[in-house]
Amino acid sequence: MLINSSLLFLDEPTSGLNSTIVGRIVSTLADLTKGDRIVVMAIHQPSCRLFSMFHMILLLSDGNPVYYGKGSEAMPYFASIGYSLAMPMNPVDFLLDLVNGMSVNQTIEGTTSTKEALLDAYNNHLRGKLAEELAGLSQQLEQQQHEAEKMTNQWCTTWWQQFTVLPQRGLKERRHEIFTGIKVAQAGLLFFIAGFSAYYSSFQTIFICPQERIMLSKERSSGMYRLSSYFIASTMVDLPMKLILPTAFVTITSWLGGLKPVATSFLICLAFLLLSMLVAQSLGLAIGPFVTNVNFGSTLLTMLMEIYQLASGSYVQNIPPFVSWVKYVSFNYYTFKLQIAS
Q1: What is the C-alpha separation between 174 and 167, in angstroms, rounded?
Q2: Quick check: helix, strand or coil at residue 110?
Q3: CB 311 within 8 A of CB 330
Q4: 114-123: b or e for each residue (b if 16 or more CB lie within 10 Å)?
């Protein structure tokens, strides 16, 4: 009753209660049956008033059924097989005495014979009808299940109609999630973050060699240190300093730009950006030793970075085939794609 179940099994729910409370309980259960619920309960010695509330009753004698049917038809049934009221009395008491084998002329032998007679009458008159009803219900249930399965296999529209309508519905549902000004602005923010970080890192490292070439040549000519030890030491000193400011920049910009507020997405995006900056620094270090003029070095690096940006498809969609392969060697292309995906 607490979970609004459709079937209730109750084992003598009225035991030990007074008649008033018993009447209320049975009345409540009767009201529950009006709401498409089934109540099956065992009851001991019900009163005549309670007996009138029962829709169907099952009488047992030593565990064997002797009657199953409507409560209003119980007395006529027993009268038809030769057991009727010999004196005015409560019909419920009469039925209880009868299933216990007590008839008008009670003897020990008569008790056994009464129970056997009731059981034989049930087998001859009621069991066959009950079996037919159960068979009919079983067939009806199978037919309903077959119709339900048939309905599930039938479609009111063709496959092509479903295929043409569903994409339209999906597009209408998702267009407000994808094609919005905020999403476009956020994508542009990620693009400029990636581009700015690449320019910042590469221009910081391209001038290291031109600026320190004279000092490096002088100290190495004196045999003070190896070139490899100088390079590794310089990288270890510069690398943390060059990554702290971009990390702070990305953290503040992500919060102000309203990007995805998930720690995992932010850390992945930051990791991709820092890797891109390392690649840009490596590019600057690779070009720096071949540059003797600062203006020429900045021009060369700017031209190379712009080629990467243009070939990646960020500005131009229709790229000529002979330069379309450049995007696959552009680290900006992969950085932007990975940031969008994260």
Answers
A1: 10
A2: helix
A3: yes
A4: bbebbbebbe
